Amino acid sequence: MSWTCPKCERELPQPEQRHYCARVSLDSLFEGRPAELILVFDKLLAEVADWDGVLVGTTPNCIVFTRRLTFLVIRPMKKELDIKFYSRVQHPEKPVSKSIASGRKFENHIRISQLDDLRPALFAYLRASYDMFV
Hints:
Layout: E1 3-4, E2 11-12, H1 26-29, H2 35-48, E3 55-58, E4 63-66, E5 70-76, E6 81-87, E7 98-102, E8 105-112, H3 120-132
Antiparallel strand pairs: 1-2, 3-4, 4-5, 5-6, 6-8, 7-8
């Protein structure tokens, strides 16, 4: 059961969950960004938002996807999306650009800028991150 913050109207997995409390429109995060970047994000959103129990929220810098906890963060940059996801093991290989230990898990980053960057392996990483927070 989710909870909606009365101040920012962001839907969160748990009542009174700590969060960045500000109203931010999704469109504002993509102002001045290339049209292809918006298409890439839309494809990611269409896939991930349909997974059971996924909540999507916006902050001034990123889009946060939660299940029980955050499993995916997408930060629109000037010409690319920084995609942060979690794993139980380190991913030192490409397309992962950074894989850092964070407690008992690893925080991983992939940067993409075009539709051709959306490969099945990327969605497998995102799904594994989602599955960690059952």
